[in-house]
Amino acid sequence: MAAPSPSLVAAVLAHSGRLEKEDLSTRISRLSRRVEELKGEVCNMINKKYNEFLPSLQSAEDLVSQVDSLSSNIDLLKSRIENEVQRDLNVAIAEFTELKQQLERDSLVLSVLKQLQEFDIAIKEYSTALLEKNYVAAARHLEKARSSLKMLESRQGFELKVLKALGTELTVQTQNMLYHLGEEWRQMILWKLPPSKEITSAETVVPTELHFCTVPLKEDQIAGPPVASVLQAFAILGELHTRLKFFGQLLLKYILKPLISYPSLWAIVEEQPDGVVLRFECAAPNLEHPSPVEVFGKIKLVLEVLHKHLLNIPLDEWGEHDKDSRVALAEVLGDMIWEEISDCLIQDCLVYSIPANSSKLEQYVEVIKSTEEFEKSLKNMRFLKGDTTDLLKYARNVNSHFANKKCQDVIVAARNLMTSEIHNTVKITPDSSIALPKLPDPGVGDHLKMQKASKKLHNEQMNLENETKLSQHTFSLPTCRISASVEKLMELAYQTLLEATTSTDQCCIQLFYSVRNIFHLFYDVVPIYHKENLQKLPQLAAIHHNNCMYIAHHLLTLGHQFRYRLTCILCDGAATFVDLVPGFRRLGMECFLAQLRVQKGELLERLSSARNFSNMDNEENYSAANKATRQVLHQLKRLGKVWQDVLPVNIYCKAMGTLLNTALSEIINRITALEDISAEDADRLHSLCRTMLEEGPQVFTPLLEENKNKKYQEEVPVYVPKWMMFKELMIILQANLQEIVDQWADSKGPLAAEFSPAEVKSLIRALFQNTERRAAALAKIK
């Protein structure tokens, strides 16, 4: 396609430029017209606003002028107030304050004068009433005066010198009033006390008398009895508790406590024209300790007399304003003395009424009933409040107190037996048994258990029928002597457990553990209390050994015997004494072994004076050795007599065998240790050994019958391990070399059974000179 010509393009562009210029001028002209229109509108709006603002401006200017005028007036008024009104106001305030203070002073003075007037009136009325012996009115006027004085003294910032004088006057009048009341009290309540202040017996308290004067002083004096008037006056003055406390102390010391403590004392009430007299009468006592029923009757009689002639005052005659004084007088006195009365009744009366055995517990219901009636009567007289007291609780808790008392009695009796002499003995044989009453039949459940156990045992017996049966004494304690006190101690334990089987559960448990405590006490007390005698006296040590073994023997089956008779709590395995058995066996063995050690020491000490059995050709040495040997035999024979018929035969033989063995062993050691033994020495040593060999068995005398002791004297080698060795030593001392070699028999002979090769060679070297024959003999000892 051919391109357009330049002239054409230029023409088109020129035409377009003209069109644009025309369009622009049109638009400009339109805008100019619009601007003119807007200017007109703005001018109109401004003119309108100005016309509206002009009146407001005028109003504001008027207000400003008014405010300026008011401000000027305010400043003028303020100036006048500060210069004229404030001065007048200050003067008025000062005058008001002064008048107010004057009014307060005048009011205070008026109040004080009024209180002084009331005090003066109260004192005057008190004096008048006191002269008329109208004690209640006088006490009230005195209290009113005290109240007025307290109000005067409570004034803050006001001191009056007359107050001290008024206080002194009030104190004087109060003491004067109390003096008159005290005189009236002493005339109405008159005590006649014994010369001795200490109450040591019933006879010392018999002179005591208490007089009640119940006749009014004057017929027209007061409506009620004078006692009430005096007591009410004391109450108003706050002295009633002090007077009643002193009266209660005298009542306790000289009347109530003696009546409780001494069964021979009885209270006597005598009616007289001017009143009543309460005194004592002494009679021969039927019992060592007072009966609760009798004591309650005595105390009730005394309190009834007090209630009738002293404490029975109507409540509406007490002080009008003191709330504490509205309590009955009997209740006030009861609160003061009841605790001591209750303790005295428990300690000096009810304690001794607790039954000694469970069979009498049912009879104690009478004591409980009398205690309830006694407290009920005291509550009716208002001596007691409505709550149950410790006295009744103690009486109702008789089962616990019975158990405690029984346990205490058991322990005391047991301790007395433990501290008694040990040497008073009784003989125990396999057939001996505790004198125990027949136990009650077991319950149904226990009966079934026993039936099953019996059936089982019967079956077992059928199975064992053809086998060897044990002796009936297999598990019996061997014949010996024990302390009579220990036998009684075991009887006490059995009787206490028997008592437990018929007691309540709680009592049963306490009694059971009391029996256990008996044995714990024995374990702790006897070794300490008898320590010196057990160490010094062999017989007592042997008896103590038997005592411990005897107790241990019974403890094995003691719990089992009562297992199904005690309370269910103890039937589950707790009712046992088996755990105490090892301790008692150890206690007996340790004591006896300690005595054996002492005896061994004495034997060795005697043998130490034998000069080692050397140089027997010397007369002094031989005499010393012979004396030592004789002393040893004498000591052994003495011990044999001391322990004869005391220790069980087997223990006796073991003990004597041990001691004899100690002596023989020491002699053997001393002789075998010698380096040179001459022929004469050997003969004399043989003589000493023969003495021991012949007289040694004679120390074995366990039984009183001499013919029965031969059996045990023939069994000496069984109890003396060194016996055969000692006999072989004697053979060596008298034998030649060939005989010794024959006794050795190539380590198969009797000599080889007792001595070692070294010991035999040592003896050969000491006995024989150094020759070829000795060397040959020594060569064969191996």
TrEMBL record:
Any single biological process term in GO: protein transport
**Entry coiled-coil feature ranges:** 21-106
**Keyword hit for Endoplasmic reticulum:** yes
Q: Name the keywords, alphabetized.
A: Acetylation, Cell cycle, Cell division, Centromere, Chromosome, Coiled coil, Cytoplasm, Cytoskeleton, Endoplasmic reticulum, ER-Golgi transport, Kinetochore, Membrane, Mitosis, Phosphoprotein, Protein transport, Transport
Q: Which residues form the ZW10 C-terminal helical domain?
A: 627-781
What are the record's GO terms for cellular component? endoplasmic reticulum membrane; nucleus; RZZ complex; spindle
As for subcellular location, the record says:
Chromosome, Centromere, Kinetochore; Cytoplasm, Cytoskeleton, Spindle; Endoplasmic reticulum membrane
* Centromere/kinetochore protein zw10 N-terminal domain: residues covered: 31-122
Membrane topology per the entry is: Peripheral membrane protein
Start and end residues of each Centromere/kinetochore protein zw10 middle domain: 181-418
Q: Which InterPro entries match?
A: Zw10/DSL1_C_sf, ZW10_C, ZW10_C_2, Zw10_middle, Zw10_N
What superkingdom does the record give? Eukaryota
Indicate the principal place this protein occupies in or around the cell.
Answer: nucleus
Q: Where is the Centromere/kinetochore protein zw10 C-terminal domain?
A: 475-605
Describe the subunit structure. Answer: Interacts with NBAS and KNTC1/ROD; the interactions are mutually exclusive and indicative for its association in two different vesicle tethering complexes. Component of the RZZ complex composed of KNTC1/ROD, ZW10 and ZWILCH. Component of the NRZ complex composed of NBAS, ZW10 and RINT1/TIP20L; NRZ associates with SNAREs STX18, USE1L, BNIP1/SEC20L and SEC22B (the assembly has been described as syntaxin 18 complex). Interacts directly with RINT1/TIP20L bound to BNIP1/SEC20L. Interacts with C19orf25 and ZWINT. Interacts with ZFYVE1.
Task: Report the sequence similarity comment from the record.
Answer: Belongs to the ZW10 family.
Entries under PANTHER family matching the protein: CENTROMERE/KINETOCHORE PROTEIN ZW10, CENTROMERE_KINETOCHORE PROTEIN ZW10 HOMOLOG
- Under what name is this protein listed? Centromere/kinetochore protein zw10 homolog
Q: Which organism is it from?
A: Pelusios castaneus (West African mud turtle)
